[in-house]
Amino acid sequence: MTFNMQFGQRWDLHEPDMAPIHLPATIAFLRKHPHDIYLLQEVEKARPGGEQCQPPPNYTELKSALPGYHSVFAYPKVNPDELPFGIALAIFSRWPITAFEAVDLPPAQVPFEFEGERKQPSHRQILKAKTMIAGRELSLLNTHLQAFFMIDASSNDHREQRDLVERSLRQADGPALLGGDFNCAPGEEIVEQFESAGFKTAQNDTITWQRRPYVTDHLFFNQGLVAYECKVIKTDCSDHYPVSCNFTFAQ
């Protein structure tokens, strides 16, 4: 499952930015929909000035609430202009995690206004790890890309983060799975770009973001895996819907 959990903020159609934060509901949702692997985005809520709490509170609570999982977590580089939204990524796996690496994805230099102030975009990241399942190695990648459509721009014109993710895909050795919130608006060619690197998306028809009718969240997989029973799960635990899919190793 890939899930932008929006730091536990519930979905409210009428006042989405004022919806309560209730992490126990997110945890209850994850327990209700058990998966072997969770790729989570926006695990923590950004704080003023880019402050990053240590230990990270939501990740710490998730680890405690999900016994039996191995996990890794990383904050992005600090941005003093960080907006009060979600940051940080985590991977939870029922199998031990090895070769963990957090790779920086520098932001495009496209300043924008937020609440009357000039802001600089934030760094993003891609988490890379490996696990072993029934004697077969699986590469896991988790990312959350910059939302250019929120600042009247397009990732088609600012491809740096996309290209770094594509490079990681082309470097994958053997079966590999990439999940995340790709913040892709209609017309942005992220799916096509990753397909050219040998990775298909598990689904591209059902919307995954409740604020706009966009498919922003994906599970990409290469020819080392076979996908089946893919679905988008409706929930009010976040402004995103998670994408769930079962995979087997290709013969």
- Under CATH, the homologous superfamily reads Endonuclease/exonuclease/phosphatase
Annotation field: number of helices: 4
* Strand percent estimate: 25-35%
Question: What is the tally of beta strands?
Answer: 14
Determine and state the CATH class. Alpha Beta
Question: What is the N-to-C succession of helices and strands?
Answer: EHEHEEEEEEEHEHEEEE
Overall pLDDT level = 97
Measured between the Cα atoms of the first and last residue, the distance is: 23 Å
What is the count of structural domains?
1
Low-confidence stretches: none
Q: What helical percentage do the residues reach?
A: 10-25%
- The computed structural class is alpha+beta
User: What is the CATH-assigned architecture?
Assistant: 4-Layer Sandwich
Largest sheet: 6 strands, mixed
| Radius of gyration, CA atoms, in whole angstroms | 17 Å
What would you note in describing this structure?
By secondary structure, this protein is of the alpha+beta class. It has one domain (2-249): 4-Layer Sandwich (Deoxyribonuclease I, Chain A), CATH 3.60.10.10. Helices cover 15% and strands 35% of the residues. The chain is built from four helices and 14 strands. It has helices spanning 23-32, 57-65, 160-171, 190-196, and strands at residues 2-4, 37-45, 70-74, 86-93, 97-105, 112-114, 117-119, 124-133, 136-144, 176-181, 200-201, 217-221, 225-232, 243-249. Strands 5-8-9-10-12-11 form a six-stranded mixed sheet, covered by helices on one side. Strand 8 (124-133) and strand 9 form a beta hairpin. The protein is globular, with a radius of gyration of 17 Å. It starts with a strand and ends with a strand. The model has no long low-confidence stretch (mean pLDDT 97).
